[in-house]
Write a structure and sequence with these properties.
- The protein is α+β, with helices and mostly antiparallel strands.
- The protein is built from 4 helices and 3 strands, in the order H-E-H-H-E-H-E.
- It has a 3-stranded antiparallel beta sheet with strand order 2-1-3.
- Helix 2 (about 35-45) crosses helix 3 (about 50-65).
- Bound molecules: L-tyrosinamide.
- L-tyrosinamide binds near residues 31, 34 and 35.
Length: about 100
């Protein structure tokens, strides 16, 4: 291990620089059956968006087939995706949620 002039141990830059976690996008997929209002509520509830933001995301998914709700470290993205899928299933809607590296 290297020493500085003052005798302190010098850490390699790679040991000092905090590594940001890899981020994952969580996305909703369009379908023909899930009510728009339900999708807006999902986005508000699980992705902490206000009504206006949630409506814009829902409309993007509706018109383009898919839309990003947020990007998170892997474990948080997995949790959110599973929360959405469980909630949709509970209300018997076919809403699909997926994640991929950002
Ligand atoms: N296409 C649905 C409808 O017309 C609405 C919808 C939007 C469904 C977004 C899923 O992720 C979705 N009722």
């Amino acid at each position: 291990m290297a020493r500085t002039q003052s005798g302190d141990t010098a850490l390699k830059p790679s040991a000092v620089k905090p590594k940001l976690p890899e981020m994952f996008k969580v996305m909703l997929l369009n379908d023909d059956y899930t009510p728009m209002e339900f999708v807006i509520e999902v986005i508000e509830r699980f992705f902490n968006k206000d009504r206006e933001q949630a409506t814009q995301i829902m409309l993007k998914v509706h018109t383009e087939g898919l839309g990003v709700c947020g990007a998170y470290p892997q474990d948080i993205a997995e949790t959110k995706m599973n929360q959405v899928l469980t909630f949709a299933k509970e209300y018997q809607h076919p809403l699909q949620c997926v994640m991929e590296p950002a």
